[in-house]
Amino acid sequence: MVTIKKNEETAIEKFIKEKRNKYKIPKVALSALESFGIYDARVLSVLTEAEIAAIDNISEKTASSLVKAADDTFRGPLFQKAADQSERLLRKRQFFTTGSEKFNTLLGGGMPTSAVVEINGEYRTGKTQTCLTCAVTAQLPKERGGLDRSVIYIDTENSFNANHLQKIGERFGIPREELLDNLFVVQAEQLRYLSQAIDRLPGYVQALDPGLIVVDSLMAPFRTEFHELNELAIRQKKIGKVIGLLKRIAIAFNTTILFTNQVLANIGFGSQYVPVKATGGHVIAHASDIRIFMKKLKGKQRRAQIQDCAWLPPDKAEFYITDMGISDKEEPAIYEEEEEEEEKKEKKGGKKEKKKDEKKEEEEEKAEETKASQKEKEEAKNRMSNVKDAINEIKELEEKGKEVKKEEEKTKKKGDKEKEKEKKAKNEEEIKPREEEKSAEKKEGPRKKSKAPA
User: Nearest Cα to 392, choosing from 181, 220, 204, 196?
Assistant: First the structure.
């Protein structure tokens, strides 16, 4: 059963009422957004202006005003004092346990919210194990080191296992039904499925308010789809859009984005010092707030090292892979399957430069800009169609849940009535013999007296 979690503080009605005069937002905006299915103002900080403008009765000017109001509210002013920015983040940010105290210390207290965390490494180093453990610990109550929030798990390598997750849940005392009810899994082994999932994410995020979104692994579908050198620019652009949306969700909804990344052999200069490097290039490297490199040690032991983080030192932490997630103590090992893709060499190709007439070049550039603008609007419209589908799916799931609950209540009432009838019948059966006995005693009484001597 899906329960939509509505936050009164970020309700769209309250938001529009408070910001309408300052940002000159027309009255029609509220009804347009509500009709579309947006009821949490934080979504406006996640969507682009083009996507919001694709909603009926929302102009480009109104979309711009809505985005500016949302950004100022949920991200803070564009220019602000460093002290104010730092205080705002510290007040908002939360931490939840990874399952290992040593790993928690390495991260400065645990997995942080409002952050994008990347885990990269060779196969069987514990990347998926860390994701599965965090998918459990994020659901724990706050007093036990969790966030007490739901989790969205996007699996691109078919490595998600519900039975394995149950074992981790048993370790932390979370019943199977409760654990799986708060976890929403997306199977996205192909790029088109991942794209659909990412497009629908804003609709699901406003409904579920997840504390953790896992993508295991982010690069796998992109590396499968784009493997030629001339496709590299297109690939990087698409990756940038995905990671950009995830980053906006992390900030607006105070969520942790945790994704795994593959590595490839480093054949360049200095490869003896850095034998492997993470895939995705600079786009992924710059997107991560915390970049962690995982390494396999002896047996079940693993090592995590901070590769890059603006506020954490490049320290290391060692822990164990167990059948109940990652832990500081050694327990029975569980095999983790992760396929490492073979490295594909990129060859440099020569580019032929052609001279063009300046006037013709300007005309072509303008035509391209117009075409790109039109394409962007179409893409935004399609993405918003996916968001709408997600909102409708959530509503359907909620309605089905309500129907199931009603049926359960009816069955319970019917059962209670039958029990009451049985109890009444039983009482009647017990009372009837007693009444007959009393009646018989009354009759026998006078007879005994008549037989007595005068």
Answer: 204
